[in-house]
Specification:
188 residues; mainly beta; L,D-transpeptidase catalytic domain-like; eight-stranded mixed beta barrel; 36% strand
Length: 188
Amino acid sequence: MSVQRGDTMIDYLHVSIAQQRIYAFSGQQLQRTYSVSTALNGAGEQLNSGCTPRGRHYIRAKIGGHLPALAVLRGRRWTGEVWSPQLQAAQPNRDWILSRILWLSGCELGQNRLGACDTFRRYIYIHGTADEALLGQAYSHGCIRMANQDVIELYDLLADGCVVDISEHATQTQTLQPLTKDMLCTAR
């Protein structure tokens, strides 16, 4: 699905580790869902754990909006490469970060912000992947992997500072309860 003029901006994401899906909401109404891949090591917040962090986050930085689909990013910069099967065959052990980066920052002190559990300092992103066939199952090194066209679409639809909740719970609703001011991330 491509972004059209007048599309509703996404202001809240719920990442369900249990379902390996992102649920994208606008004004408490479900707008889109995407298949993802979270960490093979499961959920966890510790530095160097290879786990996907839980809790309340926000998108602190959006990187790559001007790049082509399948652009290869390293250190949050475009390498000048565009992913291809040949490039992957030449570097089979590379952890491919492609197309766009949505860099997450934690909102909960001691849980996913500051110290040895800081999501931002762990470089946890939502990003495109070369392993699209593995979406729907836990396979990442801690980040949240998406299909390249999906992350490009989501990037274009996101409101600034979009709130992201990551949990081990399933989302079973089309409508959210209204977010109150005290529920929003105050770390920004």
